[in-house]
Amino acid sequence: MFAFRVEDDSLTSIIEGMADSAGNLMDALVRGVSETMTPYVKQHAPVGKRYLLDGTMIMGGELRDSLHFVYGQYGSYLAGARQGIWVIGGTKPHRIAPRGPRSVVSTRKQLPQFPHLSFFWPKVGTAVFPKAVNHPGTEPNDFRWEAFQQAMDEMAIQDVTNRIMTQWVSGGGI
Question: Rounded distance, CA 117 to CA 109, Å?
């Protein structure tokens, strides 16, 4: 450990306080930036939609509503609903087939009880019951970068960083 002494005792105590609180400073910066970024990330997260078999559209938001930062020893990371990985990274074309004797949606007694998918297809305007479908895949949508750019443009990250650093320097620590 590096140690030094200055003639002015008030300055020495301030510098020692700052050195002792460096870990607290980093924690405050990580938490402050993460808390500042949360509303930006939620604002930019895509909100999907799904359809009931009768064609009623239901707006999504599960991914958006689940987004939060998890804090650890070495910083924080964004976490949320599992479909986030497919939204951010996109998907390649793939086949979708039922896994069991019935599809996930066709559990009502009046629907087919054999292994078929069931969903409302807006393009044809009716419910369909295919044995399988070839999904065309999705383009990646890394909404995190748009959120970060907006936060930077609005100086939100700089503001929280400046506030914490000023508090640390002027107060001799956090």
Answer: 15
Nearest in space to 65 (alpha carbons), one of 89, 38, 34: 38
Q: What is the pLDDT of residues 108-161, one digit of tens each?
A: 555 555 567 888 988 899 998 888 999 999 999 999 999 999 999 999 888 988
Q: pTM, whole model, 2 decimals?
A: 0.71
Q: Is 66 helix (H, G, I), strand (E, B) or coil?
A: helix
Give the three-class secondary structure for 123.
coil
C-alpha distances in Å from residue 57, one per residue of 69, 125, 128, 134: 30, 12, 16, 22
Q: What is the DSSP string of 90-112?
A: -B--EEE--SSSS-SSTTSTTS-
CA-atom Rg of the chain in angstroms:
26
Measuring CA to CA, which residue among 59, 63, 60, 69 is closest to residue 27?
Answer: 69
Kindly give, in sequence order, each residue whose CB lies less than 8 Å from that of residue 71, ignoring residues fewer than 6 positions away: 30, 31, 34
Of residues 161 and 170, more confidence is placed in: 161
Burial of 81 by CB count in 10 Å (0-12 exposed, 13-18 middle, 19+ buried)? Answer: middle
Contacts 24+ apart (CB under 8 A), 60-66: 63/87
